[in-house]
Amino acid sequence: MCDTCALNFDSNNTNDCLTISPRTRVLSANRMLDTRYQDIADATAFLRRLCHLTPDFLDGPTKSRLREEAEQLKKLIDELKTKLQALEDRLDEVQYDLSSLVYPVNTLPAETLCQIFAAALSTGISPRSRRRVTMINRPRLRITAVCRYWRSIAIADPHLWTQTYYLINSNNPQRDLLFENFLPRTHSLPIKFTLIARAGSQSLPHFVFDSVAQWKEVCLINVYWPRNWAPNTATNQGIDCPQLTKLTFDATKDRASTPQDLLMNAPCLRELSTCTITDLFSRLSFPPQRLKKLTLLQPVNYKELILLLAQLVGLEELSITMSSPHGWEDRDLRWGLRPLAPVRLPCLSTLLVAEGHILKFLDLPVLTTLHLLQCYTEDVNLLGACILRSSANITSLFLAPINSIAYITALSSLLSSLKHLALTLLDMNPDEALQCSANFARLDYLPNLESISFIDNRPEVAFLCGSIRPFLEGIAMRAANALLSGAPHRMKLTRLVLDSRAPGVIPAEDMRDLAYLQRRLRSLRAKQDKKTETRHI
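Request: output the structure for the sequence above.
Response:
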């Protein structure tokens, strides 16, 4: 403390209180103000800094100069941006010209590139697995990732995006974002819609059917026929498919129809591929008389099939690719005790069956193309009866005989109208091979035959030893007989085709004889045409 305070303290030492100097009180008060009013101190410091500003900085000419400089800088930046954009455009042109020199495909017109893209995408039609769908969608992404030019062309062509695939997980149904990104690129064109769901899914979320108005061809790969997505609805009112013309329902198994099954209204349906026909009309509403093509992917009940075919009066093509699992010995028992009258299909021209027993119950007056995938002797007899009953003129026949007896019986005088024959090679003993050669050597045996296709399904050289030698010898004698008889016009056979799964199965000698016989037949046909022209002149 100061001297004055000390003196006062000594003179008043009898007091109990300590006297504080005025300076100490001021310092203490300042510390309190500094602590409590720190924000005010900051504001005071800011004001003090403002006091150091020169008057020239705040005058009007200075502000005008700064604003003018800012405007000039903005204009310069805009000019540089314009020049940069021009340089980038020029760089794109140079790169495009350079790529045209290095990659000539870029010189093709956009229409040609679209056709190339479409060909690249058409290799995986009708997928049957998630892996195939991934392989189909991958080219689209790769095409659009090559360059901006390809991307713009691909996105601008809606036809490249009409083949769509929807993947859904029944355990955790979510939207397929890839599908939803591709769909707007179709520009509302009709689409080919393929839905692949995991095993066990019986109901589908409603968003799967958001694009139903664009469906033209639909493939449902599921375990069961889909159920209504509204669980509280007793019966489904159905969904309308106004443009649907082709439907494929491929399922590994089926269940009994229920009122909750999804009902699809398809007034324009023309082609149907299904694994079941049980309760078909309770799941699918379509005009049966307008259906043109029916394909059965799994064995069905024969009686149900006949009752269905009786309604398909406009059917033009029927395919039954699976044979009955019960065998052919008890097939008649599964028809019931009362025999069914043959069903007349007045428009059916193409028939593909795994077994010929169904021919017993069909009347096919306009049948021209027939495929028999498993031809037994009994099936061949039914074929002959069907041809006689229907008065059909079969022009194309695919035959997979089980034995040579069935083959020889099938190719009889009933098939005199046959023009195109395709058959699988089979084993023959020496007597059967000799009879086969003798049949083909006759000019009255299949007189209108124009082409023969030999099909060898053996994966490799195995125990089977089917040979084309008997056919080659018979056809060679047929050509010689035509020349000797002086009636070469009766020899219409000019085309021989060999379809072998594995190379080296057919002996090299037979291959050489086949090529030589092919040239000989063409030469004979050329001479025949020349004589015909001379005769007309």
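Residues 60-102 form the longest helix (43 residues).
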